[in-house]
Predict the 3D structure of the following.
Amino acid sequence: MAAGLSGMFEPIGGRPPGARIGWSRRNVFAGGIALGLGAAAAATAKSVPTSTPSVVVDQPTEIAWILAGLSPLGAGGNSLNRNTAYWRAARTWFADFVDDPAITVLGSDFNLPRLVANAANYRIDGRERLTRLPGARPLWGDADGDLFTRHRRLIEQFARRSRARAFLSSQREVLETARQVLSTAVDLGDMQRWLETEFTARPGPMMVYVSPVTGGWNFTNLDPVTPRLWAPAVEPPTSDYRRFLIVMSVFTEMDHNYVNGVTSRLGPDAYGFMTEANGWATTSAWSDYGSAELVANEYMTFAAYLIYAQERLDAATFVRIADATRRMMQGRGFVRFPAFADALIVARKSEPTALEALYPKVLAAVRV
């Protein structure tokens, strides 16, 4: 899971996303590979995408973001973007509902993905009734952690009393602009096609959920049939450098759906050295991720992003992107990322083969 790219690109309102808070990656990814089949999941996984990836704005998901924004979660931090005209309009609209039971029941330190991502398993009608979609399963397969379903009745009551859908209708232009800007800034189809030349996994077409309330939270559901990603709304990029900082926030969630399975198959003998004790993660990063497997996933997803960027950018812009990515990853606590990324870049140059084949070779080369 990619961290918020603080200071790297501009979300709507000009506020950098910053670090994510309010959850432990160790808790959400215990065991490494967790699959939560989404709302549109078919009985069996498809071997190839059946449609192009898309950027979407979803009403239940947006209501979940609003609930999170009205809660104390991340107060003073950057996990939620509360510095936009959209959010000021929301604060005014929902001013009488800040103490609503649907908000107070969440508390101040709940797991945001388990609320927002599970909201995508529902649809809401004109009477603010939430209906669970056929075949929907909870995020990461964890029914006990499904905050949206657990508090569904309270959320329905909140939506009804506050006329949440009317608010979203009043903000339709803002939300559609957010969707269109991200759709234009990143080429989802190109990303997915490229990943499928590099890895053997064949998840379904990606759906990217965008919201003006999203701050430094980027995450994916790891669903092999209906993979979903959550990313922040952004301003139109003014250069390829700015565009590829936005690409980073989406690509490094998309490629978890390809990289994680390879890491799991390679096993601890390949990646087990990537621990805090061996200097591959700071105490903070190890506390968040909690296993060598998850640390390896982070190293490889961002290193793969640099290979993609190198093949899509001119040399000077790529150098800037690579430097920014190295600094960001070290800032997140993955202190040996520059060496790992450089090893993959060198391996790719000397042996132009798929990343899935290079991955174990790079792990062996950097092992200490």
About this structure: The longest strand covers residues 207-211. The chain has 18 helices and six strands. The chain has two domains: 25-36+186-366, 58-176. The two ends are 25 Å apart (CA to CA).
